[in-house]
Amino acid sequence: MTSKPRLFSGMQPSARSLHLGNFASALTQWNQMQSEYDAYFCIVDLHALTVPQDPEQLRESTRRTAAQYIAAGIDPKASTLFVQSHVDAHPKLAWILNTITGFGEASRMTQFKDKAAKQGKDSASVGLFAYPMLMAADILLYQTRAVPVGDDQKQHVELTRDLAERFNSRFGRTFEVPEVMTLKEGARIYDLQDPASKMSKSSTSDAGVVWILDDPAVTAKKIRSAVTDNDREIRFDRAKKPGVSNLLSINSALSGKGISQLEEEYAGKGYGDLKGELAELVVETLTPIRNRTLELLADPAELDRVLAGNADRASEIADATVRDAYEKVGLLLKP
Fold this sequence. Notes:
Order of helices and strands: EHEHHEHHHHEHEHHHHH
Number of helices: 13
Shape: globular
CATH class of the largest domain: Alpha Beta
Mean pLDDT: 92
Low-confidence stretches: none
Distance between the termini: 26 Å
Radius of gyration: 21 Å
Oligomer: single chain
Largest sheet: 3 strands, parallel
Number of domains: 2
Helix content: 40-55%
Number of strands: 5
CATH topology of the largest domain: Rossmann fold
Structural class: mainly alpha
CATH architecture of the largest domain: 3-Layer(aba) Sandwich
C-alpha cells in the first residue's frame, strides 16, 4: 500500500498515432508525476464511443496508444496503465452519478454545447451528453487526489468535485474530493501550418501535425516546412510571430532550454537554422519512442497481457469503491 497521493488521468485512443503535442504536454509531465504520485493512467476507450468508430480501428488504436505511453516512459510497473473498458466499475459508477446529476447542470457543460452545435442537435448522442459523468466516475473510482488536465477539461473536474460532495452529503463519506492540477502552459504545442490552433489529431492538414509514428524523414520535412513569417528575427512573440514562437516552444519543451536562452543562441541566425536544428532535435527525441512502440506492437499478446494485469490492479480499488457506493444508495448487493 503506497502512501503517495493518488493521481488519475486519461487520454482517448488516437486514430493511428499520438502527436508531438501529446508528448510535449501530457506525456512528459506524466513521466514526472509517476514518481511523485500513485498514478493511474487510463486509455478511455468508452469515451471514444461518443463519436462513430470503426470497431477494428478502435481496437488497434487502443493498443497503439498504450504502446506509445509505455515507449514514451510510462512504466506499467510503477504506474497503473490500463484500458477503461477492462474495468467494469466505470460504467457502473457512471450510472449512479447520472442519477444525482441535474439535467440543467449537465446541459451547461461547455464541451457538450460546443460539440452538439458542431454535430447538430439530432446527431449528438446521449453518450456525449453523459460524457462528464463517466469522466467523474473514472476519477472518483480510485479515490483520486489530483487530476492533471488542460483548460478544456477543468469544468468537468469541477463537476466531479460537486458530484463527490453531493454524494458524500446525501449518503455518507464515500469519495475523495479531487483537486484540479493544471498542466503547465509552457508545453502547449501548436499546428505547424496553423500556429493559431493547437496541434490536434483533428487538424485539417496532416502537414501541420508531427505524429510520433511518422517516419523520421517525414517528421523532418514537416518541421522544415513549418509556417514562419517574412521577417528574419528569431524571437518569441505569440501575437506577432506565432509560427516562430511555436518552433521556439517545441525546442524549449524538448531541449529543456528556456525561451530567452534560445533567443540568445539564435540571435543573428535565420529561420533555416532554427528549423534545421529543430528537425534534428525532434527526430532524435521521437525516433527511439517510435522504434520502441513498433517493437511493442509486434507482440500484441504480450502488450495485452500487461494491460490485463494492470486492469486487474485497477479493478481491486474500483470494485471496492462501486460496491460501497451501491450499498450506500440502497442497492441489494450480490453476496
